[in-house]
Design a protein that fits this description.
Layout: H1 4-7, E1 21-23, H2 29-42, E2 52-55, H3 63-75, E3 82-84, E4 128-130, E5 139-142, E6 147-149, E7 158-161, E8 165-171, E9 174-177, E10 187-192, E11 196-199, E12 202-205, E13 218-223, E14 226-231
Length: about 240
């Protein structure tokens, strides 16, 4: 008779990297939140599906201060997945876990405030064309229009556009289109293998995407408040 324990495969541990944003508040925190609110107004979908780490290094906070900080972020739909730089003993049950030894991946350039005459436009007009691939750990942020990548978007990288995203190679990282509040934005790629796709704040991670589209040339659009995938091979 076979021992059930012998029939089970051994436990396997796998490592996986994710692109995360580190928020590091600086005093006065009220002014820092005002800057964060201005960013969210310019790019409503900036934090869509994005893991977020809170860095408390250099801040003198009580547990009550930390609870208030987390509540303010939650109210802005920015969930915190981990905390760096917390004083010993501050974190505990009900709080995000303590993280350490994170590897920096460079700073994400924040978009400038739009000119007054540009704020009335509903569809961004300027485009960005990238002749080289987007490398792992790299973030492309262009809220003024479309982004066209002539090469690949690597795993662990992300492209954030105010308009549509065109990828002429494999899409293996994150593609966030319509980040300035443009529901008409779309995502096109020649080979669909993303970690996440999003349009106007609605997103789907890799595990939520229909595997039938994997490796195919795909268009992603927003239809009736849901993301719709269409293969180029299906025609129009």
């Amino acid at each position: 008779m076979t021992n059930p324990a012998e029939a089970r495969p051994p436990i396997r541990f796998r490592g996986r990297s994710f692109m995360a944003t580190v928020l590091a508040p600086v005093p006065p925190v009220s002014d820092w939140f005002a800057d964060l609110d201005a960013l969210c107004r310019r790019a409503p979908a900036f934090f869509a599906g994005r893991p977020t780490i809170l860095d408390l290094t250099g801040l003198s906070l009580t547990r009550e201060d930390l609870d208030g900080l987390l509540a303010e972020l939650t109210a802005r739909n920015i969930p915190v997945h981990g905390i760096e730089g917390a004083p010993p003993g501050m974190l505990g049950p009900g709080l995000p876990p303590s993280l350490f030894c994170g590897r920096p991946a460079g700073e994400v350039a924040m978009p400038d405030a739009p000119a007054p005459e540009a704020s009335a436009r509903t569809v961004p007009s300027r485009s960005l064309i990238l002749d080289s691939p987007v490398r792992s750990g790299q973030t492309i942020l262009h809220l003024e229009g479309d982004v066209t990548v002539l090469g690949a978007v690597a795993s662990g990288s992300e492209v954030i556009a105010g308009g549509s995203i065109h990828v002429y190679g494999p899409l293996r990282g994150r593609a966030v289109a319509g980040a300035s509040g443009n529901p008409a934005a779309r995502i096109w790629c020649r080979r669909f293998e993303p970690e996440l796709v999003a349009i106007d704040g609605l997103y789907k991670a890799a595990d939520d995407l229909d595997p039938a589209f994997r490796g195919q040339p795909v268009e992603v659009r927003l239809v009736d408040d849901s993301l719709r995938l269409t293969s180029f091979d299906q025609g129009r």
